[in-house]
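Typical record was shown:
=====
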Amino acid sequence: MTDTAPASTPASIPASTVPAAAAAPEWGDPFPLGLASFGISALVLASVMSGMIDAAATPAVLSLALALGFLTEIVAGVIHFRRGETFPGLVFTAYAGFWLSYALLVQFYAPMVTADGAAVTGMFLLAWALFSTYMLLAALRTNTTTVAIFVLLCAVFYLAALGAFSESTGLGHLAGYVLVADAALALYASAAVIVNTTWDRTLLPLP
């Protein structure tokens, strides 16, 4: 009887001849984008809130609120969620909602309010203050810079809400100056992340 060669099996195929599965493309870090979007929008808004620029310039704030505060922040947030990063994903998508709702309120709905306008504006700001407060609690497990950004942001919302309820221009201006500091810190953090990444070493410290 003549011996026959055993049939080849998948296990006998050398591994080097099996094509490797294509690696899924990695998402870049959207954190500096979200911070820059917030920082730029907030800085321009703060210049009006503080009284440094006349309130008649508010339409310029709304353009940034929609193009940067809303659009690019929501992009950053969705990418964070895609990367499995819930905290920054929630931060950027939620505050994207703030910028959109702020633009809609100022441009379309506030002029329609005929009673209790100060009260409803105060409640709008207070609701965001409460949200920012529990996000601050979550931020305590991140880093010092993020905590500082949320501390300042909470102060902005509480001061602005109190100013709206009491119809106090002074408190509104104070909230604007605090927002200037918050926007500057967010922009610094954005710069630190992207500069340190591209230089592959720490040029701008980010505690």
Q: What stands out?
A: The chain has a mean pLDDT of 88. Residues 29-199 form one domain. The helical segments are 31-49, 58-82, 86-109, 117-139, 144-166, 169-199. The CA atoms of residues 16 and 183 lie 54 Å apart.
